[in-house]
UniProtKB/TrEMBL annotation:
GO molecular function ontology, one term from the record: carboxypeptidase activity
Protein name per Swiss-Prot or TrEMBL: Carboxypeptidase-like regulatory domain-containing protein
Origin organism lineage: Bacteria, Pseudomonadati, Bacteroidota, Sphingobacteriia, Sphingobacteriales
InterPro entries hit by this protein: CarboxyPept-like_regulatory
Source taxon at top rank: Bacteria
Keyword flag Signal: yes
Protein species of origin: Pedobacter psychroterrae
Length: 355
């Protein structure tokens, strides 16, 4: 073989290999007595990746790219365990000790059937959401939920995975709920947990519909925006980002979009840091984003946070999939903050592939 050609092939191989690099998260699960724990469900939060520990308590999840992952372990009679794992340049070993569940003390448990139906309706509204996608969701096992109240505060807990079928997006979601609270006095909802996604089986017609709905859901989402920040293509992908100039509502923003390159510091080939000293107002408007014209000097944007825009305060390290550490600051108001489980997509979602 020609030496020049051989050298060229070797050089090309050198540049291709890093893109193909994948890593593994593995480890062993034990209890406080040191006993190995078999048949525990181990999954990556908000993904389609899951496995089960073997008779020696060993688990392994391979084929992972560099990024930030939430590793979740669930086993009957034990409290769920969660560990953030950041893969940067090599595989990671995570050994976890699971704690046995104590006897939980509950508040006023809602046992009356009519009351339970009302509280289940409230739970569905604020957990699944009120969007078109949410309307296509069915909670398959509501019996695993326990409700309790304390004045205006409604709380919900679950001893097992919540199973949600999203017939609009074509996913079966297993959601490990840690806590859910709804305060009717202030109309404030807080909940915490992790989702695991399984694609539903469907007809070819259903699959086409799911593909369309997934792309529609993805476009303009926080996941879409963070990925666009990672590639520094927010404007090209339809986002406009403005600096908020006041602290109160209605919100006032500078009329000229921020160049998002100002927000980004590249850490390495796998991570960026995004931060900005002020709040940001972000809107998804591909038509306007494609228009290079600026508003006249002296104009200003006044918003009451309608259905289209989101206010964002951000300081976080982000990977190519739009994942970030839970210990970092991404605070939202407006459109993104109102989206619930019914509008979630797994991190594997790729609009080019439709799944």
């Amino acid at each position: 073989m020609n030496k020049t050609l051989l050298l060229l092939i070797l050089l090309l191989s050198h540049f291709v290999l890093p893109a193909q690099e994948s890593f593994t998260i593995s480890g062993t699960l034990t209890n406080a007595k040191g006993e190995k724990l078999e048949s525990a469900t181990v999954f990556i939060g908000n993904s389609q990746i899951a496995t089960v520990s073997d008779k020696d308590g060993v688990f392994s999840i391979s084929g992972l790219s560099a990024g930030t992952y939430q590793l979740i372990v669930n086993l009957l009679s034990y409290a769920p365990a969660k560990q953030e794992v950041v893969i940067k340049g090599g595989s990671e070993v995570v050994n976890l000790v699971l704690q046995e569940k104590g006897i939980a003390l509950k508040g006023v448990v809602i046992g009356d059937e009519s009351k339970r139906k009302n509280f289940l309706k409230t739970f569905n509204k604020y957990f699944l959401g009120e969007s078109e996608n949410a309307k296509g969701c069915v909670l398959m096992n509501p019996d695993v939920l326990d409700f309790s109240t304390n004045k205006a505060l409604m709380q919900a807990t679950a001893e097992d995975f919540l199973i949600v079928e999203n017939n609009k997006l074509g996913y079966r979601i297993k959601y490990l709920l840690r806590n859910f609270q709804y305060n009717s006095a202030g109309d404030v909802t807080t909940y915490d947990g992790e989702a695991f996604f399984e694609p539903l089986k469907g007809t070819e017609a259903q699959k086409k519909e799911w593909k369309v709905n997934r792309e529609k859901t993805y476009k303009g989402s926080l996941m879409h925006y963070l990925r666009a920040l990672y590639t520094n293509t927010t404007r090209e992908e339809g986002f406009l980002t403005y600096a908020v100039t006041n602290q109160l509502f209605p919100m006032v923003a500078d009329p000229n979009p921020v160049s998002t390159i100002q927000l980004i510091t590249r850490v390495d080939s796998n991570f960026i840091v995004v931060k900005y000293p002020k709040r940001l107002y972000t809107v998804y408007d591909p038509k306007k984003a494609a228009d290079e014209l600026r508003l006249a000097k002296g104009d200003k944007i006044i918003e009451y946070l309608d259905k289209t825009g989101s206010v964002l305060m951000i300081k976080a390290e982000i990977d190519a999939k739009g994942r970030y550490s839970e210990n970092q600051n991404i605070l939202m108001q407006g459109f993104w903050s109102k989206l619930r489980v019914g509008d979630q997509l797994p991190f594997e979602y790729d609009p080019k592939e439709g799944g």
